[in-house]
């Protein structure tokens, strides 16, 4: 039998217990198909010479019909997924009632006023079958109760039918004893089945809780290992990527100390290396702040065009220094967002585009495609990103292999963009072609956008 131990991840405890109980019950019942056939064969073979053939044949045909439905029902349930099987089982649970009713009605063949030893043996077969079915069906309490209620109902109908058929409308002592024993048996079976079900539910509850505990422990372990790995990666990236500008600062400083007349030539280089170190420190601080959920989001109505223009102006000088043209195409609109975080988000995208572009330029566009769908596009003519890497560039510390000759930075720019977009409720995607450029798109449609 397959235990669907991943179910606790998807459902509540009660739903999982019901699904697992139904799965176990289906497996057990399918395992008793041969026993059910043998019990039926023994019963009807025992009585076929003792009863009127038409009545014997009629009840046999009822059993054959119910047995065919039984096989279809449980085999169909077994082929479905756990969730589908539970829905199918509960929708067709009346089949369990038909099985109980059929075996209860079968007592009509052994309800003579003076039952013989052969008929009493047939009665024992029926009661043994009912007891075994109660044990198998006790995994799922509604199924078990329905079976016992249907079985007792069929048994009472058979007694009344026999009473009518006998014409004198009287019961012998033996007949009366069988009736009361049957009723008592129904009560005993019900109590017995409920106790079995209680034990079964307790076992599944412990299994669910142990699985949840194991999952929680595994998640905590994985989180701790991930945190250690992240710290190791930060240290490794810091040591690797910051070594170059720090060594450059050391060399430039020695040159300047040895020959102060080189100040005009060396000072700009010192300033450039210092800016690179500060930029890398800022990226690390941003990542640490976002990972620790210490970033407060302060939503307010923002004039989007003015905010985007301001961010572009801040990066205009950086683009000019690389010989790049930074153009804008902006519509008027207002947006409910955090202006500081939005500026950091857009600024990271623009600076990333400038970093990996050596010629051409950038276009920052604010477009409206539908009345309530506004988006910002940042186009560049840079190195581009291969298709197989485009899903990775939003991960921390990832740098595309196509970005050769650009060793500055930790590869944190787009990971910070992804986290800021999550905080602000935006969706960020990109399209890129190697040696042609990249377009990063910020979909603002999830936020409240209105015309300016």
List its traits:
452 residues; 13 helices; alpha+beta; Heat Shock Protein 90; 3 domains; disordered N terminus; three-stranded antiparallel sheet
Rounded mean pLDDT score: 79
Domain module tally = 3
Which class best fits the helix and strand makeup?
Answer: alpha+beta
Strand content: 5-15%
- Alpha plus pi helix count: 13
Radius of gyration: 39 Å
Reported for the largest beta sheet, the result is: 5 strands, mixed
What coarse outline follows from CA principal-axis ratios?
rod-shaped
Strand order of the largest sheet: 2-4-5-7-6
How would you describe this protein?
With 452 residues, this protein is of the alpha+beta class. It folds into three domains: 7-217, no CATH class; 242-291; 300-451, Heat Shock Protein 90, CATH 3.30.565.10. Helices cover 64% and strands 11% of the residues. It has 13 helices and eight strands. The chain has helices spanning 13-30, 33-47, 53-79, 82-91, 94-105, 117-137, 141-165, 173-241, 243-258, 263-291, 304-321, 339-355, 413-424, and strands at 300-303, 325-330, 333-337, 361-370, 373-380, 427-433, 437-443, 449-451. A hairpin with a 2-residue loop joins strand 4 (361-370) and strand 5 (373-380). Helix 5 runs parallel beside helix 7 (141-165) and helix 7 packs antiparallel against helix 8 (173-241). Residues 1-10 and 404-411 have low confidence and may be disordered.
């Amino acid at each position: 039998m397959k235990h669907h131990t991943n179910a606790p991840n998807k459902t509540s405890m009660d739903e999982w217990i019901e699904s697992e109980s139904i799965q176990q019950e289906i497996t057990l019942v399918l395992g008793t198909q041969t026993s059910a056939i043998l019990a039926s064969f023994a019963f009807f073979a025992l009585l076929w010479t003792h009863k009127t053939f038409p009545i014997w044949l009629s009840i046999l045909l009822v059993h054959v019909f119910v047995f065919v439905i039984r096989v279809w029902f449980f085999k169909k349930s077994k082929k479905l997924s756990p969730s589908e099987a539970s829905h199918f089982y509960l929708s067709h649970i009346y089949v369990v009632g038909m099985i109980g009713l059929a075996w209860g009605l079968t007592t009509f063949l052994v309800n003579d006023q003076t039952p013989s030893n052969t008929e009493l043996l047939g009665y024992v077969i029926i009661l043994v079958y009912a007891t075994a079915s109660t044990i198998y069906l006790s995994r799922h309490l509604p199924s078990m109760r329905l079976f016992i209620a249907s079985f007792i109902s069929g048994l009472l109908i058979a007694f009344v039918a026999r009473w009518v058929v006998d014409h004198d409308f009287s019961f012998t002592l033996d007949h009366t004893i069988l009736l009361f024993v049957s009723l008592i048996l129904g009560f005993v079976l019900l109590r017995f089945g409920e106790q079995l079900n209680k034990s079964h539910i307790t076992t599944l509850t412990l299994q669910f809780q142990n699985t949840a505990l194991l999952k929680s422990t595994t998640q905590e372990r994985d989180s701790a290992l991930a945190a250690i790995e992240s710290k190791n990666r930060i240290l490794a990236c810091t040591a690797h990527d910051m070594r170059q500008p720090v060594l450059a600062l050391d060399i430039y400083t020695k040159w300047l100390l040895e020959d102060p007349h080189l100040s005009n030539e060396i000072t700009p280089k010192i300033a450039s290396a210092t800016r690179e170190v500060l930029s890398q420190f800022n990226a690390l601080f941003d990542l640490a702040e976002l990972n620790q959920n210490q970033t407060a989001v302060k939503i307010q109505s923002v004039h989007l065009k003015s905010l985007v223009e301001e961010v572009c102006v801040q990066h205009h000088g950086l683009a000019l220094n690389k010989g790049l043209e930074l153009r804008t195409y902006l519509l008027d609109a207002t947006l409910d967002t955090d202006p500081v975080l939005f500026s950091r988000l857009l600024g990271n995208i623009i600076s990333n585009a400038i970093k990996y572009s050596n010629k051409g330029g950038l276009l920052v566009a604010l477009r409206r495609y539908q009345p309530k769908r506004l988006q910002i596009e940042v186009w560049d003519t840079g190195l581009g990103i291969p298709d197989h890497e485009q899903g990775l560039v939003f991960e921390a510390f990832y740098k595309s292999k196509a970005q050769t000759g650009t060793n500055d930075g930790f590869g944190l720019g787009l990971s910070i963009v992804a986290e800021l977009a999550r905080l602000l409720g935006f969706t960020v995607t990109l399209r890129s072609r190697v040696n042609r450029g990249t377009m990063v798109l910020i979909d603002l449609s999830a936020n409240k956008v209105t015309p300016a």
